[in-house]
Every structure is written in structure tokens, then in C-alpha cells.
Amino acid sequence: MKDVLSFVQVMKEITEKEFLHYPDRCEPRHHKTLATTIGIEEQVQIKLQCVSTSTKGRGMASQTEISQSYLVHSEEPYAAIILKHCRDSHCHFCFNELPADSVPCTSCSIPLYCSLHCQMQAGGQQLRNNSKNRGICQNLSSDLEKYVAEITSLKDSDLSIEWIAEHKHECKGVNWPAVLPPEIVLAGRIMVKSIEQKNHNNSNLRETLELSHSYKTVPPESKLDLHIYSIVLLYCLQHSYGFQLPLNGLSMSQLVILISQIMVNSIAIVRMKFRDGYSPSDQAVNFSPAGGAFTSNMEQVRVGQAIYSVASLFNHSCQPNIHAYFISRTLFIRATEHVVVGCPLELSYGPQVGQWDCKDRQKFLKQEYSFRCECSGCSEINESDLVLNAFRCLNPDCFGVVLDSHVVKYENQKFERFHGFPKNCISEPHLQEFNNDGIREVAHKAFANCSFRAAPGHCLCCGAYHDLEASQATVKEAGIYISRLQEEVVSKEVLPTTLSDALRSLDVLKSTLHAFNKGIAEAEDCLAQAFCMIGELQPAMHHCKASIKILEKLYGSNHVVIGYELMKLSSIQLASGENTAAMKSINQLSAIFSCYYGPHADMMLPYLGTLRREACKLGL
């Protein structure tokens, strides 16, 4: 009886110390909502097939037609790693933001977790013998003490082969995972998991991950880095895991190729956040002229890097037809447009048409993923690339674009792919909106002659010369005043003189840059935030609409970026009392976000729910 009473007391103490001290430890933060927001219809998966293309090699396509907003695929990562800059702010397993009572690894203390559940899933030297170390089992018999230790520790057998503890081999009191680059640590996790799977079902890494690599095209100095990192990683794995592969040329080659595969095929796990770090709640938002409106910019922040067995096979396109997002570690992919049978399913690895011009997209993809993009946005003429960083023609009656030498280089490469430029060659639906603005005619006139080559500083329509050196200096000076205003917006102290200088700078930009240059849109957006901050909602609304008009030309009216901007506009409209216009904006942005996020829209964008609830209060 004494042993029984002691056992009950021990279990009570364990419960209090482990679970009551950390109320949400038993489940990862935000994971409950994941299970409850995926409806039965969301479980339906599109039947995918691996296809080969002439320009991109292997990729993924659907064997059936896919409707817009339909869930194409969802998947847990084969292996994942947190990025260094997020180690102190995000959970090392689920990648959600850390709470104040974060849970460290009990052995090495390097990883931090949002809950006990995430700590257990990640592995490491976890809770084994914790009850004994606390001295709370000292009154138990040896048999009961052993039983308590067994039921309060995580057994390897408790996890399926798909959930092999990814931190366990790193958790030996050595800090090499904190020193090596994330992609190298990720390679170690993949290698260890492949060995565990091989022991479980006789598979091997080549059979598990059929990923491409670009080792042959890697510069010699980068190849040297790969080999050095492979040697270092092999030593680390031998020390901390008892690595089964010998330290020889074959093992090193396998790791070199694996790291090359990660460079090309890894997917960045991202989180949405407001650029100024502010996240509105229902209590914080006051939709009134006195309370102002919420106009903070949203951005994607990379928090992790992962390899997904299937999703990593999706190719990149700067004009994607699918959209990827994350809930904890789980990747979801939705179709953003109607996709016909056999059409390649392509997502964006980061840059898109409308966001950056071709030059900057190519530079990013080469640096981050070691390939030159051959998608339609980079190989075919599109008006977004022509106008995004263009200058305006000095001829007041001409709507033509003037390009600098860097943009001209990439656009001429596109032009050389075509012998003639048919008027209907642009296939993107949103580019039809340019008809009334004359952009399509500009492109057609400029490139109808296959011998024509764009020249820096010359209008593509009338040929008039523009002194770009002087114009670039003018734009740079105007940008100083816009940047100064942006700094004051962030600090929430907008001075009248700074606002006046920014307004004059906007006029300078409009007289120098093309009407659809993204720089003008960014200046308009900055002014909208400034006017909103000082309570002048009508000019704030005017500048917000002007920014959206330009962005619709660059991205298309149904792009997710437009949804983010409509959140600002609808907030200003509600604060201004323009409820009917606000409801129209809310309906439009709701349709956009439903396309990109499906039933997860409110979870991904909590402010969307705030806007909807405010509209309901007003009876809209």
C-alpha cells in the first residue's frame, strides 16, 4: 500500500511539473487548429505524375483537370531545419513563434521548442530519467521506479519511421549543428533518416529522394566548399551518431551530391508577418477617423529550410499556377488558376513577374538555387518586365518605355527567341488589361521587326533619346525623401515637412519614371501610410488606390499581392465611413485569399477575420 501511495504521489508530481507548468506543452502551439480546419473535401488529393520537359527536366503535372483554389497537394517534410536568424524566435520543430515559456532541449540546450510535444518529436536526449533526477522517485521500489521512467519518456518505437527524431543524432553535447550552415545540417538529417529507413525497410537514399542536382555547373571554388563541408559533416556524424558509412571518397561523394540536391530542391518554410512587426488584434483596431486605419505592409519571412519527398519535385516558374503555404511544418499547395490535364504544375521559389524584373529574378535564382530560369516569364516578352523599372518617354504624347542597359540585356535575349512578335503572343490573362494603355502596341511596334534590338535610353515606341544618367540621379535624390518618410512611418512620428518633401518627390518620380514603374507604387503606398497615421484618411485612400492601380498592371487584379493591398484600402474605407466601398474591397480580397489559401485564409491572415467581423457589425 505504501508503494501504491508513493506511486500516485509521483505521478501527481510529474503531471504538475511537466504539464501544468507548461499548459500547452503536450501539443504544439497552433497544431489543434490544423486538425480542425481541414475539411473532408480538403483530404482529396490530386493524382500527380512526374513529367519531363525540354527546358526544366523533371517536374510535376496533374492527370486530371484542376479547378482554381483546389488543394493540389499537402505533405510533411522529409527533413527540415530552422534558419540561423530564427533560432531564438521560432520553434525548432514546428517553426511557429516561440512563447515566453519556450522548452529547450534538456541536453544540449541549443534548440528551443514551443511545446513538449515538439521537443519530443524533434528528439534529443529528452525526458529520460527526468523524474529520477528530480529526486521524486526515491521512495519507490525499483520495479515502480522503472515503470515510471518508461511511461514518462519518449520511446523511439513510439514514432513511426516517417517521424524519425531529427535532432537526436545532433544532441551529444557538441555544438556543430549551431556552427555549420543550415543546408549542411539539413544534409546530415537527411542522411541519418535515410540510414534509419534503410534499416527499417531496406530502402536507400536514391530510392527515397529522386532529386536533381547541378553539381556540374557549380563554380570550382564552390565545389571546393562542398567537399570541405562534406568531410566536416562526416566527422561530425561519426562522432555523434556512429555513422555507418566509412570516411572515404565514396561517402564524401554521396554527401557532396546530397548537398547539391538540397541547394536546388530545398523549399523555404515561410511565415507571414507585418513588416513593422505589429500584429493587430480586434481590441487594437479602431475603425474611425480618430482611431485611424491599419496600413502595415505584409511580407514573407523565411524561417526554415526543408526537403519534401514529392513537393520538392515541383519546378519553379516566375508566373506560377500553384501557390504554396505552410501551417507549422505542413506544406499545402493550391491551384491559383484552372489547370488543364497534363499542364506542368509550377510554383514560385521566391521571385515572380511583377515583383522583380527578369534581371533580378535570374540573379536571385542563380545564387539561391544554382539554375538559370527558363520559364515563360523569363523567356517570353511580358509587359510587366518592360515597365516595372522603366523610365517614361520625354515625348508627352508617347506612352513608350525607356530601359536602362541592365534591363535591355535581358529583354534582348527574349526578343532574339522570336522571329516576329504576334499581337496575341502574350498568353497571361492579366496582360490583356494593358490594351487601353498602349503597352501592347508599344511591344508590338518595337519587336515586330526581328532585326530590331532595344537600345538603352531610347524609347521602344518612338525612339526618342532619354538621358538616363541624369534621370537616375533625379530618381535617387527623390528616393531619399521617400525613404525618410518611410522611416518616420515606422517610428510613428511623421513630420509635416517630411510629408511635404515626399509629395514633391512623388511628382518628380511621376515626371521621370514610367507610369507603371513599381517605384511610384511604393512611393504612393508610403504616402498612404503617412496620411493614415496623421488621420487624413481621404488623401490616404487616394494614394492607396493609386498604388493598387499600378500593382494590378504588374501582377494582375487577382494576385495575392493585390489582396494584401486591399486589406489596407478596406481598413481606410471603414475608418472613413465609406462602408459600401469597404464591403466591395473586403469581398474582393476574400475571393483572392480563398483562391490562395482555401479554408485556411483566416488562419493565415487573422486580420481578414477582423475586417469581416467589422463589416458584419455595420450590417454590410
SSE layout:
Blueprint: H1 2-20, H2 31-37, E1 48-53, E2 57-62, E3 71-75, E4 79-82, E5 103-104, E6 112-113, H3 116-122, H4 130-133, H5 142-151, H6 176-179, H7 182-201, H8 205-208, H9 220-241, H10 249-265, E7 267-274, E8 298-307, E9 315-316, E10 322-327, E11 330-335, E12 344-347, H11 358-369, H12 376-379, H13 383-387, E13 391-392, E14 401-402, H14 405-415, H15 439-447, H16 468-491, H17 496-512, H18 518-533, H19 537-555, H20 560-576, H21 579-597, H22 601-604, H23 606-617
Helix pairs in contact: 7-9, 7-10, 9-10, 16-17, 16-18, 17-18, 18-19, 19-20, 20-21, 20-23, 21-23
Order of strands across the main sheet: 1-2-12-9
What ranges have pLDDT less than 50 throughout 5 or more consecutive residues? 10-41, 126-134, 154-161, 419-437, 445-452
SS class:
alpha+beta
Rg, please?
Answer: 28 Å
Percent of residues in helices: 40-55%
Q: How many beta-strand runs?
A: 14
Q: What is the oligomer described by this structure?
A: single chain
Distance between the termini: 67 Å
Overall 3D geometry?
globular
Number of helices: 23
**How would you state the average pLDDT, rounded?**
80
Work out the strand percent.
5-15%
* Main sheet overview: 4 strands, mixed
